[in-house]
Amino acid sequence: MSEDNKSKIFILDTNVLMHDPSSLFRFQEHGVFIPMIVLEELDNSKKGLSEVARNARQASRFLDELIQHADMQTISEGIPLPQLQYATRIDEKCTGRLYFQVKRMDSVLPESLPGGVADNAILATALALADERPEVQVTLVSKDINMRIKASVLGIHTEDYHSDQVLDDINLLYSGMAELPLDFWSTHGEKMDSWQDHRGHTFYRVNGPLVKNWFSNQFLYLPDESAFECMVRSREGDTAVLELARDFREPKHSVWGIQARNREQNFALNVLMDPEIDFVSLLGQAGTGKTLLALAAGLAQTMEGKQFREIIMTRETIPLGEDIGFLPGTEEEKMAPWMGALLDNLELLGGGHADSVGWEKAATNDLISSRVKVRALNFMRGRTFLNRYIILDEAQNLTAKQMKTLITRAGPKTKVICLGNLGQIDTPYLTGTTSGLTYVVDHFKSYSAGAHLTLRRGERSRLADFAADVL
Fold it and tell me: DSSP assignment, residue 8?
C-alpha cells in the first residue's frame, strides 16, 4: 500500500488544542490520537482568564462530551467524532475516530535528546504508535517548530496545523483595489449610464467581463492621465454600479486638516468617511498613515459631523521587549504605554492651526480628550457599543476568534476600523496566513457595508521608508 493510500492517525500536540479547540474535528475521515501527557498539560493550562486558558477549557469540554457516553471498549476502539450536537457545523466532513492513550507506550529515545519531559513523552508515544500500527501513517501535528524538527530527526512524520490557515500565500490576500486596463471604456462603456445623486456624487453603470471579478466597495483606477478613480457600489452578474471617488488630496477636501498624499490614502479616506460603510480594515507597513487617517476621519465625523458619540481606541497589549510589569492608575492610564502610536497622532491632529495660540491648542486638546476613550481588550466581552467609532490597532496579533468577539460588540450606528501590519506579528503560533486580521479581510470582502485597503507606500519620512525596505 502506498503512503498516499494509507489510513492516517494524527497525534495532536497540546499547543494545537490550545490554539484551536475545534482542531479535533478538522481531520475529516482520519483518526485523531490524544496522548495522556496532553490531557495533563491541558489540565495544567486551564486556569486563568487568558485566551490560552479559555481554549484549554473548551478543548477539555469537547473531550468530556465525546467520552461521556462511551464505555471502555468504545474508547479502546476509537470514539466516532461527529457526536457533538454542533460538531457537524464545525466540519461536515468529520467522519474519523478519536483515540486516547489507554496503556503505557514506551519507546527508546536518545539519552541526550533535549527538551521538556512532556515533549519527549509525546515523541516517545508517536514512535511507539508507529511501531505498533505499521499499516497506518502516524503524523504528529504541532505548532512548535522545534518539536517538529525533533520529530523529523527521529523519523516521525510531522506537520504544522494548517486548518485555520486562510490562504496558502499571504500575497494572495485581497488588496481592496485593482488597476483597470487602458481599453476599459471601449470594452465596458458601450451601454454605460451615468447620473448624479442629490449630494453631487457621480455614478456609472457599466457592463463587461471584468465585472464578475469585482467586490463591493473595491476601488478601481486607470493608470493613465485621466486620473479616473472609482469604487464599486453594487454588482449583479456582469453589471456594476461605480461611484466616482472623492479627491481628498485637494486642500478643500482635507479631513481634520489632513490631506491624502497618494492614491491609496485617498481611497482609505473615501471609505473611512463613508457613512454607508460600517467596517474598514487597513493593512500596511509602518509609516503608510493607517493610524493618522483613521483618527482624522474619526475626529471629523465625531467632532464636526456629530455622526458618532465618541471614539474608542484599543489594541492587544503585547510587548516588543521585556514586560514592564503591573501599572498603577485607571484603565486609560494603564493602557497609555500601549497606545503611544495613537496618542502621538492625536497630539498631531489636536495641535490646531500653525497660528493658534497656546490656550487655543490646550482647549482643542481638552475637547478631543473628552471624546476619545482608550479601552483595554480584556474587558470587551459582553459589551455593546452604540453610536461609536472604534479603532482596533495592531489587529494582526489577534486570532480569528478574538476578532469575532470584538467585531460583534458593534451596535447600531457604530463603525469598526481594524489596523494592522502582517509583517509585525508578535503573538506565538500566529502567522500572516493564520492571523485573525487576514481571516476578517478574506471573509468580509463580499460584505456590502465593509471595505478593505492595503497601503503600500510609506509617507512617514525618507529614513523610515528606506529602513522598511532594506532592514
Answer: E
Rounded Cα–Cα distance for residues 28 and 142 (Å): 18
pLDDT at 110 over 50: yes
Nearest Cα to Cα of residue 13 among 143, 180, 165, 186: 143
Q: CA-based Rg of the chain, rounded to a whole angstrom?
A: 26
Question: What whole-number distance in Å separates Cα of residue 168 and Cα of residue 140?
Answer: 21
Which residue in 421, 464, 454, 422 sits closest to 263, CA to CA? 454
What is the domain range of residue 122? 7-159
Residues 140 and 185 in one domain: no
Query: For 217-276, how does the pLDDT look when each residue is reduced to its tens digit (9 = 90+)?
Result: 999 999 888 889 999 999 998 899 999 999 999 888 889 888 999 999 999 999 999 999
Q: What is the pTM of this model?
A: 0.74
Is the domain of 416 the same as that of 326? yes
- Which residues face 255 on adjacent strands? 258
Whole-angstrom distance, CA of residue 230 vs CA of residue 113: 60
CB under 8 Å to 173, separation ≥6 — which residues?
166, 167, 283, 422, 438, 441, 442, 454
